[in-house]
Amino acid sequence: MEHALTVSPWASLAYLVAGVCFILALRGLSSPASSQRGNRFGIIGMTIAVVTTLVTHVPLRSEAWPPGNPHDLMIDWTTVVEILAAIGVGAAIGLVTARRIAMTAMPQLVAAFHSLVGLAAVLVGVAAYLNPQAFGISDLVIPLIGQPFAVIHPVSRIELGLGVAIGAITFSGSVIAFLKLNGNMGGKPIMLPARHVINIALLAAILGLIAYFVTDQSAWIFWTITVLSFVIGFLLIVPIGGADMPVVVSMLNSYSGWAAAAMGFTLHNSAMIITGALVGSSGAILSYIMCRAMNRSFISVIAGGFGQSSDAGGPAAASDRPWKRGSAEDAAFLMSQAEQVIIVPGYGMAVAQAQHVLREMGDKLKAEGVRVKYAIHPVAGRMPGHMNVLLAEANVPYDDVFELEDINSEFAQTDVAFVIGANDVTNPAAKTDKSSPIYGMPVLDVEKAKTVLFIKRSMGGVGYAGVDNDLFYRDNTMMLLADAKKMVEDIVKALD
Question: What positions carry a catalytic annotation?
């Protein structure tokens, strides 16, 4: 079977159009108002890229011997059917997953998809190493002990080494992130002795081997790079606690993009290069923004092993401190008498799927002359934009939704802060308790409101960071203990 190793001008133009669509998709996804348009651009771009690749890389075979005459080439329909079947299986899995997955499971789903991207990069790299002529990365064949030995281009060896290394790190790291987010593995960090020394040594070894691979393409070098990369991906993520996992998922997203870009060079596919660069750079920028939102060091994310104290807190003292309990009727009365109510949604709202009834509550309060706003923390719901998507799904007006930096100053002049399932991002300990794993993380200043209404299932649970929330025990806080959706439904009834 032979493959096209050159790309026609029409294919290059098609890939360029696909790249423009991907850029427009990212631009559209930057705002809830334009997110649907952004998704459409992404679908169009990916369709163009996939169809172009299939058309320009139709598998061919020759029944003549020796092969090589272009006139003897015929379409290899068996391989075509296999490719289409693989695409069909993948499309079916993606469709079923997209329809069935809950928004609350989106972070671990993203981590799982990143692992597939990393694994794909590794497999492509292995295939290219074993058969470089099929990928157009070798021109010279040297007989070696009776067998032909294809010499890979030096530049292609760099691309192969980097692609396989980044892909393997992405795969093993994403698997650990998925297991932690999905609850299959404890969220507490696993601290290995001298982990930073080990990580630096492994990274240096991988980079050194890639450099050596340029001069010597021996199999042991290639496979050693692959194995060490799988290992360091595991070692980088296991020391990270659950509170920092959203940043990890974002960083792995960036890694997957760079792995795809490196493999794009190997496959001579400009669409992969463009897409990988977009994903890699946007993921890195998002990670930086999230690090700032959580007061984390960007360098420490790359090095791994931050979040060491994410098990420092705990719910032990929750039952020993006094707190006030309220009812739906109490909440309805307080909010109906308020001039302004700021609603703070979080993971608890997502779990209960309470966004629609929450919007209904907001509409009723507006009808009574109450100003209603929604405050969103950058990493609320374990994933950036998670709450924005849920509120947009419930048709909450975009003008009513504000980011932390735009609304934090308003809590001091607000009558009621209505917190529905947002725990860590409202914890005042982030500003006062230096021993807390979330210390220094910017949080929503809900404690400054005249009254705080906090919906929570029970007083026994803690946030994703594993620490109790001091806000529960403040004099101006009233706890509403119930399922979030059921409580808001009761409040809506009480407002009638």
Answer: 424
